[in-house]
Amino acid sequence: MRNAGSGMRNGGRPATHVEAPMNSNIERCERALAKFPDNAMARFSLGKAHFDLGDFEAARGQFALALAAKPDWMAVAILLGKCEQALGNKPAAKETFERALKLAIAQHHEGPQAELEQLLAESGAA
After folding, report:
1. How far apart are CA 57 and CA 12, in angstroms?
2. Sequence ranges of the domains in the chain
3. Confidence class of residue 3 from pLDDT cuts 50, 70 and 90?
4. Whole-number Cα distances in Å, 89 to 8, 35, 50
C-alpha cells in the first residue's frame, strides 16, 4: 500500500503533477546555489524555477543578481523585464526591455529582438 500522504504538499493540499517537480527543482537549485553562491547560472536556474511557478518577486531578485554578475546576459534581461511587467512595474519593465533590446541587437539575436520590439510596442513604449 502506498503512503497516503505521499501526494500531499503545501500544507496538506494535493500536489499537482507540475507543482511537485517544480518544488523539487527549486530545492535542487537552492542546494546548488548554497554550494556555489557566485555561480550566475545557478542563480539564473533558481530564478527560472520561481518564474515558471509564477513567483515573479522571487524570480526578479535572482535574475537581478544574475544580471549584475553578467550584464550582457540578454535572456536574463528579458526574463527580468517580464517579472517587472507581471508585477505591474511598467517603468522598470520598459527600461529592462530596452536594455535587453540593445543587447539583442548588439549580439545579433533576431528572434529575441523581434520579441522585445513586440513587448515594447504592446506596452506602448515603442
Report:
1. 24
2. 13-122
3. very low
4. 35, 32, 18
Phi first, then psi: what are they for 8, rounded to 5°?
Answer: -100, 135
Q: Which of 59, 35, 39 is nearest to 49 (CA)?
A: 59
Fold of the domain spanning 13-122: 1.25.40
pLDDT at 23 (0 to 100): 78
pLDDT grade for 82, boundaries at 50, 70 and 90: very high
CB 73 within 8 A of CB 66: yes
Q: In this predicted model, what pLDDT tens digit does every residue of 62-77 receive, in sequence order?
A: 999 999 999 999 999 9
Identify the pLDDT of residue 123: 82
Query: What is the number of other CB atoms lying within 10 angstroms of the CB of residue 82?
Result: 20
Instruction: Determine the residue type at 100.
Output: A
Q: Which three cell numbers stand for residue 22?
A: 517544480
Question: All 3 cell numbers of residue 119?
Answer: 513587448
51 in helix, strand or coil?
A: helix
- N-to-C CA span, the chain: 60
Nearest to 76 by CA among 99, 54, 55: 99
